[in-house]
Automatic annotation (TrEMBL):
This is Glycoside hydrolase family 5 domain-containing protein. It comes from the Bacteria. InterPro entries: GH (IPR017853). Keywords: Signal. It comes from Novipirellula herctigrandis. Residues 1-22 form the signal peptide.
Length: 956
């Protein structure tokens, strides 16, 4: 093999370079068998180092781990870079280290010819640690801006680059021979800064197959820098992990029986249909002035199709768990007869099971939402019949159908036919058509069908359908070529709508054509919604509230469309799996980092999907397994939903199959029925959001726009979420689509054009925050520091301290939070000292009284939960190789809770089983008038997570 040294650079990264400390190194380089590198500072993730490249058209290539679960025996770490064009680049890394220096030697070799635009090694650093700091590139001084302003901060041949963080940490990067260095602010895509070191290339420069390029550098630190070889681990029972006994059903009358803790009524529909009232809140038709919230779970696939006995058991269980809403999701596949090519013939046995489950849920006061298309099997020949009579085999892909139904008449008629068959059906157990039953309160037309999600992936006849629709739309909108060219910015002479060859555009591009293309997508979506609403209301007489577009591509134009919906819906996930080889197959990866340390970003972007004046829901969310910090997700989601005064939340999911409904199963990505830790976390959400323990934020910020600005004369199609989404933890946020920009004293209004503050300006977040302080919205004691990801709500009930990795929740009826080992959570009603394992701990009153006066409390202590023999490729447990099996194992940990209650001398504390049944009495003490409760996962060789505090005799 021919070897060529493209360039050889010496990079020295140092924290004020000097002699290393003899103590344990402050910095660590953790390298995987494949050669991916994580930087850690005091044991916490602090950056990464990866090789990368861009092909022509600036297509990025992805570093691929490979070698899952292997160890390095010859000192060479082997991975690959996979390019979009199909070329594989072999990557070898040899790492030599002696504290305080680590020397890296990369060799990269393509297996086939490739054309490059750039080639580099990237040092990526979290913006939360460095924003607001400074840099010095040779003799040039600059700032690492507190908020995003521009991408390139410094670029060119640089010998020395020094960075200093606001906290005084500094990095010095020295490059031999003046190699080109790019210092980049990545915050238009993610929360990082990056330093790319590599040669300047001509656009499309050739890199022949077999030609090896070398990159060499060294990394060092005055505080010491150690190197750790990463490798596989397996979770096994022992002193660190203890088995948990699990039953799915709730012990009636126990501390986790929320059938009386959360006020609800039975049956669903008792007070009429769910409506959107004049204040933009959900209410019942018979009680229009009383707003109501909903909290529920999703059921998926075979979890809908149960014996009558099991359906009753599930409905009873969900009621005792505290839910008042269910989402029926991914229900079509079993419902449709296998022989039904058009996906319209129901399996009568399955229909009976679905009917019975629906009736059981109705009986127990649970309101239902569903989608009219999720994943129903429909043959390709139904939508795209062949002109020669030879039809393509197989079914239309799920995402293909979502796109077809907008522009293909056969797809839309098939969609209507299914909706008619379902909604016209009379449930024999309720004696009502689904269209008439108030239990079926909400309908999403098509799950996750935002047109921009898939428009760039269209092929064949479907792409042709959209191309035709796009060109017809252009022809209708622009009367002559001059106005068309002016709108698009550029148009080749041989392209015209009349020829039908104006190509589909990139929805994410920053071009005039992209803006107009997003207007087109918005108007196509509006037309689809209008036609479907007309059909449901006029032809079927269905009055369920309607929505659509609940994930993830959201140019601001779509806010104008949402303004016609009955309510607005969205989805979000934290630690959603990424599949490394095949979809929905192991190995998979997730970040598995503390969401608190990252500023609790889960759901923040969704906050700007909300339109003031309309109810807002999240029908899918999860802090997914096997993420070790998922226990905090219940508090975070319930808190955010309550602060924002949202109207409904649905965890994804309760179960994906009937087996996980019937008996405990091993942990999987999403099912709370198989995850006792996430099921426990649900109780925080139920108390905070559904019971209303957190007050809504007192003030609101609204981005405003008119339909004319969004659709008729748009200047931007950027995402609807601004960079300052962290303010969602301080005040209510969202959009208004209106012709008026008047405000009241509790609301700041930010027009997208012509206002004092551009909501998408680089300084908008800080200006809004300073304005909130100036007009007295925030108390002088409010601890918010935007540049450090410290947030405190305007009502003072929640504090997120990212630098300390701490969450504090302080309400009268629920108090607690998250903290690493050795730190303390301080609230008015309790002090919680986390002793040896980071944990989420909270106390909730189980009656209507505050914690101090309550007669019954529930304490929850969540560390981590895994399956026995779960296997990971790395010590950070980011790459899952094998799920393992039952029993569940809980990570050991201890905490000390000091409760300030009125009558500590008459308190008894019990350790609880997962069912809520009392299993042991806990020895407590009274110190300085406080009840001191020791929490420990370990209980005679088994695990526990739940505690009940009974003060005085139980109520009869």
């Amino acid at each position: 093999m021919k070897t060529h040294s493209f360039y050889s650079a010496m990079i020295v990264c140092a924290i004020a370079v000097s002699q290393a400390s003899a103590e344990t190194p402050k910095w660590a380089v953790v390298v995987s068998p494949a050669g991916s590198v994580q930087l850690k500072l005091n044991g916490n993730e602090a950056g990464s180092i990866l090789p990368g490249l861009h092909e022509v058209a600036w297509e990025p290539a992805t570093f691929k781990e490979g070698n899952w679960g292997q160890t390095v025996d010859d000192g060479i770490h082997r991975g690959t870079i996979a390019t979009k064009s199909g070329t594989i680049v072999d990557v070898e890394l040899r790492l030599d280290a002696e504290n305080p220096t680590a020397r890296f030697a990369y060799r990269l070799t393509p297996r086939s010819d490739i054309k490059l635009n750039s080639f580099f090694v990237s040092l990526t650093l979290p913006s939360g640690d460095w924003a607001g700091g400074t840099f010095e590139a040779d003799d040039h001084l600059g700032k690492l801006p507190a908020e995003y302003d521009k991408m390139a901060l410094r670029s060119g041949p640089i010998k020395s680059l020094q960075l200093k963080s606001p906290d005084g940490d500094s990095l010095a990067l020295n490059v031999s021979q003046g190699t080109s260095v790019l210092l980049q602010d990545d915050r238009q895509w993610g929360q990082t800064f990056s330093i790319r070191v590599g040669p300047r290339l001509a656009q499309g420069e050739d890199w022949p197959a077999g030609e090896t390029l070398s990159i060499n550098f060294a990394l060092s630190s005055k505080d010491g820098l150690g190197v750790e070889e990463d490798g596989p681990i397996t979770v096994v029972p022992g002193k660190d992990w203890l088995p948990l006994d699990v039953t799915l059903d709730v012990e009636p009358g126990s501390a986790i029986d929320f059938s009386t803790v959360i006020p609800r009524h039975m049956p669903a529909g008792k007070y009429g249909r769910v409506i959107a009232n004049s204040e933009g809140k959900f209410a019942f038709a018979d009680q229009p002035n009383e707003p109501v919230r909903f909290y529920g779970v999703n059921l998926c696939f075979s979890a809908h199709y149960l014996s009558h006995e099991l359906a009753d058991k599930l409905a009873e269980r969900l009621w005792r768990l505290g839910y008042n809403a269910i989402r029926i999701h991914h229900y079509e596949r079993e419902l449709i007869q296998r022989s039904s090519r058009d996906g319209l013939s129901f399996d009568l046995e399955k229909l009976d099971q679905l009917d019975y489950l629906f009736a059981a849920l109705k009986k127990r006061g649970m309101y239902v939402t569903t989608d009219l298309f999720v994943s129903r099997p429909v043959s390709k020949s139904t939508i795209y019949p062949s002109e020669n009579g030879i039809n393509e085999q197989g079914n239309v892909g799920m995402d293909e159908y979502k796109m077809a139904v907008h522009v293909n008449d056969r797809a839309f008629e098939n969609f209507k036919a299914f909706s008619r068959t379902l909604l016209d059906h009379v449930n024999p157990y309720t004696q009502l058509r689904y269209a008439d039953d108030p239990t079926l309160s909400w309908l999403s037309l098509v799950n996750e069908d935002n047109p921009g999600n898939f428009i760039g992936k269209l092929e064949g006849v479907q792409k042709s359908d959209w191309q035709t629709a796009w060109n017809h739309w252009l022809s209708d909108r622009y009367g002559d070529r001059k106005s068309l060219v002016a709108a698009l910015g550029d148009l080749p002479e041989d392209h015209s709508p009349a020829k039908g060859n104006v190509p589909l555009q990139n929805v994410y591009a920053d071009t005039s054509a992209s803006v107009i293309f997003n207007v087109f997508l918005a108007e196509i979506e509006q037309d689809f919604f209008n036609r479907t609403k007309q059909f449901l209301r006029k032809e079927l007489g269905c009055q369920a509230l309607l929505t659509d577009m609940n994930s993830w591509t959201n140019p601001m134009q779509m806010q104008a469309v949402r303004d016609s919906f009955d309510y607005v819906d969205d989805h979000f996930y934290v630690d959603h799996p990424k599949f490394l080889e095949r979809s929905w197959s192991l190995p998979s990866s997730c970040p598995n980092t503390s969401p608190i340390a990252e500023g609790a970003s889960g759901g923040r972007r969704c906050a700007f999907t909300r339109l003031y004046g309309k109810p807002f829901t999240i029908t899918e969310f999860n802090y997914s397994s096997p993420g070790r910090f998922r226990g905090v997700g219940g508090i975070l989601t319930g808190t955010l939903g309550a602060l924002q005064d949202w109207d409904g939340l649905w965890r994804f999911a309760y179960a994906h199959n009937r087996e996980n409904v019937a008996k405990p199963g091993p942990l999987n990505y999403f099912d709370v029925s198989a995850d006792p830790l996430n099921q426990a976390a649900e109780r925080a959400s139920l108390c905070l959001f559904l019971r209303g323990d957190i007050e809504p934020a007192h003030h609101a910020v609204a981005i405003t726009a008119t339909r004319e600005q969004l659709l008729d004369s748009p200047t931007s199609s950027r995402d609807k979420t601004p960079s300052w989404d962290g303010l969602a933890w301080l005040a209510r946020v969202g959009w208004k689509v209106t012709g008026q920009t008047n405000s009241n004293s509790e609301q700041v209004v930010l027009p997208i054009e012509g206002g004092k503050i551009d909501p998408f300006g680089s300084d908008a977040g800080n200006r809004i925050f300073q304005g909130m302080k100036q007009i007295g919205w925030l108390d002088v004691s409010n601890s918010t520091e935007l540049d450090k990801n410290r947030f405190q709500s305007d009502n003072g009930q929640v504090t997120i301290d990212a630098p300390e990795d701490m969450l504090t929740l302080d309400t009268p009826r629920t108090a607690g939070g998250f903290a690493p080992a050795g730190k303390q959570i301080n609230t008015k009603a309790a002090t919680i000292a986390i002793q040896d394992t980071g944990a989420t701990v909270w106390i909730s009153s189980l009656d209507t009284k505050p914690i101090r006066q309550s007669k019954r409390l529930l304490i929850t202590h969540l560390t981590d939960l895994q399956n026995t023999d779960a296997r990971y490729a790395d010590k950070g447990r980011k790459i899952l190789l094998d799920w393992g099996h039952l029993p569940h194992l809980v990570q050991t940990g201890r905490a000390m809770v000091s409760l300030r209650i009125d009558d500590p001398s008459h308190a008894k504390v019990y350790g609880l089983a997962a069912s809520g049944k009392r299993i042991s009495e806990i020895k407590t003490t009274i110190e300085a008038g406080q009840l001191v409760v020791p929490l420990s996962v370990s209980d005679n060789g088994k695990a526990r997570m739940l505690y009940e505090v009974q003060i005085g005799a139980p109520a009869i």
